[in-house]
Amino acid sequence: FGLTRLFAVLEPLLPGSVSVSRISVQDIYKDGDKMNADLEFSVLSRDYQSVVTMIDNMNNSGIFQAELRGQDLQKTDRSTYTEYTLRLIW
To answer: Are 87 and 81 in contact (CB under 8 A)?
Structure first.
């Protein structure tokens, strides 16, 4: 498991309006002859459709299985955005 490799395969799947805010490794396990990582993955975006597109891109990549788990509206003096939390199998 390597974060550099994870970011290398994630980057092409992320729309420009979506930013990674947090990655937490929940488990690393072997499935047959393949190693998998179960991740809690959070992103920030002002655009829900971009997050849906990102999830579709991940699920169609053959590399990830992504499932939206929650969303949390964030308001500051300057902007409003939402943090989306996903379960991501890599």
So the answer is: no
Q: Span 65-80, mean pLDDT?
A: 89
> How far apart are alpha carbons 76 and 72 in whole angstroms?
13
Number of neighbours of residue 82 by Cβ within 10 angstroms? 16
Q: Quick check: 13 and 6 in contact, CB under 8 A?
A: no
pLDDT at 46: 92
Report, in angstroms and rounded to the nearest whole number, the Rg of the chain calculated over CA atoms: 14
pLDDT in tens, 5-32: 888 999 999 999 999 999 999 999 998 8
| CA–CA distance, 15 with 13 (Å, rounded to integer) | 7
pTM: 0.84
Look at phi and psi of residue 33 and say left if phi exceeds 0, alpha if psi is from -120 to 50, else beta.
Answer: alpha
